[in-house]
Amino acid sequence: MSKEICVIGVGYVGLVTGAGFADLGNRVVCLNRNQAKCDNLRQGIIPIYEPGLEEIVRRNIEARRLFFTTDYGEALKDAELVFIAVGTPTGTEGEADLAYVQEAVEGVADVMTRPVIIINKSTVPIGTGDWVARIMSRRTDIPFAVVSNPEFLREGSAVYDFYNPDRVVLGSTDLQAAEVVADIYRPLNCPILITDLRTAEMIKYASNAFLATRISFINEIASICEELGADVTVVAKGMGMDRRIGPSFLQAGVGWGGSCFPKDVKALEYMASVHGCHPQLLRAVMDINRDQRRQVLLKLRALLGNLEEKTIGILGLSFKPNTDDMRDAPSIDIIHLLQIEGARIQVYDPVAMDNARRILSNVTFCPGPYEVAQGADAVVLVTEWNEFKQLDMDRIKAAMRTPILIDGRNIYDPAQMRARGFIYRGIGRGYNGTGNQE
Ligand code: NAD
Hints:
Elements lengths: L3 E5 L3 H12 L3 E5 L3 H8 L10 H10 L3 E4 L2 H5 L4 E4 L14 H13 L4 E5 L7 H12 L4 E5 L9 H6 L4 E4 L3 H11 L6 E4 L1 H32 L3 H9 L20 H14 L5 H13 L2 H10 L6 E5 L14 H11 L3 E5 L4 H7 L3 E3 L3 H5 L4 E4 L4 H4 L3 H7 L4 E4 L6 H6 L3 E3 L13
Parallel strand pairs: 1-2, 1-4, 2-3, 4-5, 5-6, 7-8, 9-10, 9-12, 10-11, 12-13, 13-14
The structure holds nicotinamide-adenine-dinucleotide (NAD).
């Protein structure tokens, strides 16, 4: 049976969740603090780039199942289920900052007029569900339940992931409430794991930490490959054929970034440390990632010497393809490191340019990849957008001052690039003289 749902926060998670549940036939009101954003959303103009999302938002606005408001009273009027999908950024010590979650929970408690189930979709530290329940109890006498429902969607394929989750995790001390939440996921025909609050919260952190660990692992192997003359792309392929290992998250490159892995690994490390554990592996995973972002600088120094006044072209800025999200993107650190050495930077990204303009300074924003190569002493591929895989590389080379190509995501064939006259460097590609060793 369709439900009355309120979703607080209309970012990558909230908007996909709200639009998705509306599309499944529920009535959803999305609550947002920003009036201009809200006005745009009512007309189907979405504040983020997420393939396929705008279409679902528009369809459900027209069907009068999806609504937007900035008013807690209006959002909570009929709500039975309240999803919290606000940001949980890194705090000053590495902990997850719960200020937005607190604001949302207090907002709900202060206006609710009927029993609700509060569902935490934001990634929150272990124990947050209990903390939310305490805030609620202090501010309202109306019955409520708290359910943890960590989100696993991937930016860039968030809509697909909403309809095709590998699993839905629900944690609560109130099994009946967890079952009510399970019911709204039933149309998706996916496995549903019901557990306690803290275990559900930990599943999210452990999953992200494990994925980050796989990438840092292969990046460490890449550094060893480079020294010993092996090609990490083939090593990863060979490893991935083992069913116990599998091929995902074994692509060596300039490291992981984005809105989740960096803050979640840091937050888990923080939680563990303050509770007397020694999360050595998590620390190593973060250290390797930090070092990995320096790889580009080291390779350029080795090839160009002093980078003062050198022009470096950067292809791709978002933390991964198919998103405009620049949060903790490797491109930011890479560009800063190069700027510190005095390099001039010219950049292009298919969709993240507007967000990048707010973060990067003293860089030239180019209209396309060929302009990035114009007069460049080196071009660095940072984000593996599909459009970079099919570039006219002869045109790129002809535009450059020196044909140095740093392939930060190993998307090009080293032998082909060399045959075209590039001085090519990938990440961890040392095989048989065709990779990083010449
Ligand atoms: P986001 O920054 O894109 O969106 C957060 C939204 O919450 C913004 O629209 C913000 O304006 C709004 N907001 C903040 N406080 C509010 C309040 N008190 N009332 C109403 N709105 C408020 O963040 P996101 O990427 O959607 O992530 C949200 C949460 O989900 C985070 O905890 C994140 O770790 C987690 N998560 C994100 C992803 C992802 O891929 N982005 C995946 C899984 C989990």
